[in-house]
Amino acid sequence: MFSSKMLKYSIFVLVLVFSWLNVMAETNVDLGQKVTSLEEQCGFFCFSPLNFLLRFLSSWEEKMIHTEHPPTSCRAFGYSSEIHVIHVPGLHPFAVPCDSQMAGPGWTVVMRKIDCCTDSFSKNWSEYKQGFGEINGTFFIGLEKLHLMTEASPQELYLYANESGKEFFGKWFDFRLGNEDDGFNLKSITHLNGTIYDYFQGQVNVTFSTYDRENYVDEYYRPAYVNHGGWWYSQSNTDSPTRLYYYREFVQMMIRDQT
Ligand SMILES: *[C@@H]1O[C@H](CO)[C@@H](O)[C@H](O)[C@H]1NC(C)=O
Ligand SMILES: *[C@@H]1O[C@H](CO)[C@@H](O)[C@H](O)[C@H]1NC(C)=O
Ligand SMILES: *[C@@H]1O[C@H](CO)[C@@H](O)[C@H](O)[C@H]1NC(C)=O
Ligand SMILES: *[C@@H]1O[C@H](CO)[C@@H](O)[C@H](O)[C@H]1NC(C)=O
Ligand SMILES: *[C@@H]1O[C@H](CO)[C@@H](O)[C@H](O)[C@H]1NC(C)=O
């Protein structure tokens, strides 16, 4: 008697769960969200074993779907030029603009300047470390993120500038940054080709400079201060794409996992 009652109840529960999962699969709605919205409407249901089962399933689903294969870069989004959330090891998930129009699919935009003659890159060390600006406009992603993104996977780098309608680009590969203890130094970078000036030449192991932390060797010349922008300045290069240009309408730097 008792066991047949239990059996009926179990079958009832299973049928409910499977029809629920079907609805999930069709509508592609987050299971956790559904359970939460159901809880808001329910009374007795909230304390039933069914609810515990659904809670368990939803946490399991979250583990399987959301953390097992998380997109670690824009590579995963292919031909998209939208803003997406990525999960870089060592960081909380964060939103980045992806770009597939400038140089093929899968690029992550890490720096963009579309405000031309505004002094928007004259920022201090902690601002460059954290990142600044609006990701849908003029912004820098931040050195900490760049360091961990380049640690996670070897990166190629693309730089684009538009000067009074003339377009320039450059491509590099093996882009890798050290951590803050190493001054976010350039661990490696190799020029491939392009029409833009090579802002990375001879700069392997050169640390980052900002106006409040000039790491350039000559104490009488302060490139980050003079240029109104932070960069990896060295004796072989004191110029940067973050510099205040009065004739550059558009500058964009992007990285992509090397295949
Ligand atoms: C860096 O700039 C930010 C924003 O202006 C400011 O809040 C912060 O105190 C500055 N940090 C240092 C170390 O100067
Ligand atoms: C970026 O988004 C903010 C907030 O949604 C908006 O105010 C701003 O105009 C946007 N900027 C650009 C360049 O689209
Ligand atoms: C480059 O500048 C020209 C002239 O201002 C403009 O027509 C073109 O759309 C720009 N290209 C990009 C990618 O911004
Ligand atoms: C730069 O190199 C890439 C890869 O070899 C090639 O596809 C591209 O056409 C080159 N661009 C120029 C301007 O040489
Ligand atoms: C690279 O830079 C680090 C930190 O500034 C320094 O300790 C190290 O000696 C440098 N290595 C080379 C090969 O220059």
From TrEMBL:
Keyword hit for Signal: yes
Pfam families: Fibrinogen_C
Gene Ontology CC: extracellular space
UniProt keyword annotation of tRNA processing present: no
InterPro entries: Fibrinogen-like_C, Fibrinogen_a/b/g_C_1, Fibrinogen_a/b/g_C_dom, Fibrinogen_C-term_domain
Keywords, sorted A to Z: Signal
SMART domains noted in UniProt: FBG
Domain Fibrinogen C-terminal as annotated: residue spans: 65-233
Signal peptide extent: 1-25
Identification of the protein by name: Ficolin-1-like
